[in-house]
């Protein structure tokens, strides 16, 4: 091959884009998926993200659940939170036309220790590309994982949630957002601290969803 041909071939190769790979499992993305709603996931990962869009009415407040917290989502959150694969945060709302301008969106907090270890707040990363301002009027005074605790201790755990004083927020109905709902206890506590209008949960545990089945609002309109 002539030197010109070699140069031409090298230049041509640099213009070919890399084969797109799934952001979760790193396997190549099937050709038929590359123009889909969530183009950065392979078929099996996209299917494993079980979107449910269920609405519950709990103590007069509407709670909106986007995904079921399956084993797949547990691994996904772990990869995002503990392995700091922050880019995964954009997956959850990637194919949604999120419009929450009429609300003051408030995030449930991680503990200070978690936030310092991670260097980011996962729920804020989920909303980063939506252009929505997310406020953090709450804080936790200790780092206790709710799901590891016996029922009797959960009241104590709820007491670690506190409201910041002198924290400015826009005067709009409050939409409380959380990444994972396991027992709902901390979210319920937050509802009492803030005059919450609605609750939006990215992923809810199937056991919690089963327990809330009597509160499910069938055919309720979605939040956006
Ligand atoms: Zn995949």
TrEMBL record:
SUPFAM superfamilies: PRTase-like. InterPro entries: ComF/GntX_DNA_util-trans (IPR051910), PRTase-like (IPR029057), PRTase_dom (IPR000836). Coiled coil: none annotated. PANTHER family: DNA UTILIZATION PROTEIN YHGH. Belongs to the ComF/GntX family. This is ComF family protein.
């Amino acid at each position: 091959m002539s030197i010109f041909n070699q140069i031409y071939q090298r230049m041509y190769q640099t213009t070919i884009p890399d084969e797109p790979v799934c952001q979760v499992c790193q396997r190549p993305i099937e050709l038929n998926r590359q123009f889909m709603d969530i183009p950065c996931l392979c078929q099996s990962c996209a299917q494993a993200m079980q979107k449910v869009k269920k609405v519950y009415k709990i103590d007069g407040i509407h709670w909106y659940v986007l995904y079921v917290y399956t084993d797949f989502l547990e691994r996904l959150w772990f990869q995002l939170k503990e392995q700091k694969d922050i880019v995964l945060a954009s997956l959850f709302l990637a194919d949604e036309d999120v419009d929450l301008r009429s609300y003051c969106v408030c995030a449930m907090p991680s503990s200070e220790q978690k936030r310092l270890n991670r260097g980011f707040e996962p729920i804020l990363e989920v909303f980063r590309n939506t252009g929505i301002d997310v406020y953090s009027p709450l804080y936790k005074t200790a780092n206790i994982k709710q799901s590891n605790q016996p029922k009797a201790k959960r009241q104590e755990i709820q007491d670690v949630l506190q409201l910041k004083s002198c924290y400015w927020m826009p005067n709009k109905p409050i939409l409380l957002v959380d990444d994972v709902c396991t027992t709902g206890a901390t979210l319920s506590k937050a509802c009492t601290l803030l005059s919450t209008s609605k609750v939006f949960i990215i992923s809810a545990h199937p056991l919690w969803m089963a327990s809330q089945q009597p509160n499910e609002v069938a055919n309720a309109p979605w939040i956006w």
